[in-house]
Write a structure and sequence with these properties.
This protein has helices spanning 9-51, 63-66, 79-82, 85-101, 112-116, 120-130, 143-161, 172-176, 180-193, 231-235, 242-249, 254-269, 279-282, 287-297, 313-329, 339-343, 347-361, and strands at residues 73-77, 204-214, 217-228. By secondary structure, the protein is mainly alpha-helical. The protein has a three-stranded antiparallel β-sheet with strand order 1-2-3. A hairpin with a 2-residue loop joins β2 and β3 (217-228). α6 runs parallel beside α7 (143-161), α12 (254-269) crosses α17 and α14 (287-297) runs parallel beside α15 (313-329).
């Protein structure tokens, strides 16, 4: 075509060689950078392998772990334990309990780690349970203020729980660091001590990764932490009674004891033309328990004080709890069993309550 510019093969060839030369240099630079990064990553991986020879797979080492002082250690919850259904259920039960206790304070807890670490919720919970006002600032934003509040709260808690055999598995630093295991330990202890109207999941254990620094090297190990055992074993931290001894050392006499208790309660309930044949089921709604206390103490219990025909779980719990109050009014110690356990047909709890009445009123007519 006339007038059209014509490029020589020589100029095109030169341009291609120039481009190839440029791309080659660029590619070489990229390759060198990639190899350099691989070497750096490999070096870092080797360094970590040396510094953390026993680190379980899937466990992250946090920056603060590398800053540990010599012979210091730090604990963290194993990621697999965090997803444990029973551990999640335990947290849910504790959260529901706290929210129920602090409903009047309009406090709503959504997560134990984020809502308990600063001491505000723990302060309100302890004050509600103990009926004791703590001398602390209501609102504290600074870390120092939060730790001072925690110090006051935990001193009061430890003073209360330590004489009853509880192992102190929490501290100001662990709670403020949002250590979930320490927070759960604390809440379980409070719930059991104050006979919270909840049923904690039994046999809940978690794996905790312990990071230690020895001679400049980080070492890790797994430790199993038992957060709950059985309700009865946890209640056993408190003073044992004669019924515990009977069950531990003479379980074969259980039927004999049950027959004796049936005879005892019927001796009194027969006055109202009532008769018991099954201890665990017939006392579960609390009605016979309330009537029995009236007969033993020689007074009439007004019917408006309890539900004569309870229709749901809450009404049955109310009846049993009311019977417990009557026992305390009669000079007996607060029953070790929880009203919920009696309502839930827990035989041992029911027998313990009745055995306590038997030992105190066996000579009553």
């Amino acid at each position: 075509m006339a007038g059209a510019p014509v490029r020589s093969a020589t100029s095109q060839s030169g341009k291609m060689k120039k481009d190839e030369s440029f791309l080659g240099k660029l590619g070489g630079t990229l390759v060198r950078k990639k190899k350099s990064k691989e070497v750096s990553d490999l070096h870092e991986e080797g360094k970590n392998a040396i510094n953390t020879p026993m680190l379980p797979s899937g466990t992250e080492i946090h920056p603060e772990d590398t800053m540990l002082e010599e012979n210091a250690e730090r604990n963290m919850l194993d990621p697999t334990s965090r997803e444990n259904p029973k551990f999640k259920d335990l947290q849910r039960v504790l959260i529901d309990w706290i929210n129920n206790e602090l409903e009047e304070d309009r406090i709503i807890v959504k997560g134990l780690e984020e809502d308990c670490y600063d001491g505000q919720v723990l302060q309100k919970l302890f004050e509600k349970l103990s009926g004791r006002k703590l001398n602390v600032a209501e609102v504290t934003q600074s870390e120092i203020g939060q730790k001072q509040k925690l110090q006051t709260v935990l001193e009061a808690v430890n003073e209360l729980l330590r004489p009853h055999g509880w192992s102190i598995e929490w501290s100001v630093d662990s709670i403020h660091a949002k250590n979930l295991v320490a927070i759960v330990y604390l809440l379980v202890a409070l719930a059991m001590h104050y006979l919270a109207p909840i049923r904690l999941p039994e046999h809940v254990s978690v794996q905790v990764v312990v990071v230690k620094k020895r001679e400049g090297i980080l070492q890790t190990s797994h430790v199993t932490k038992e957060l709950t055992s059985t309700t009865e074993m946890m209640m056993g931290r408190f003073e044992r009674d004669a019924f515990d001894t009977l069950l531990d050392h003479a379980p074969d006499k259980l039927n004999v004891v049950k027959k004796s208790l049936v005879t005892f309660v019927n001796k009194h309930l027969n006055k109202l033309n009532l008769e018991v044949t099954e201890l665990e089921s017939q006392f579960a709604d609390g009605v016979y328990l309330v009537l029995l206390m009236g007969l033993l103490e020689n007074y009439f219990v007004p019917l408006y004080n309890f539900f004569l025909t309870p229709e749901n779980f809450e009404q049955k719990v109310h009846n049993v709890a009311f019977a417990f109050e009557l026992m305390q009014d009669g000079g007996l110690k607060k029953p070790k069993a929880r009203p919920e356990d009696v309502v839930n047909l827990n035989l041992k709890s029911t027998l313990r309550v009745l055995y306590n009445l038997f030992t105190n009123y066996k000579n009553s007519e």
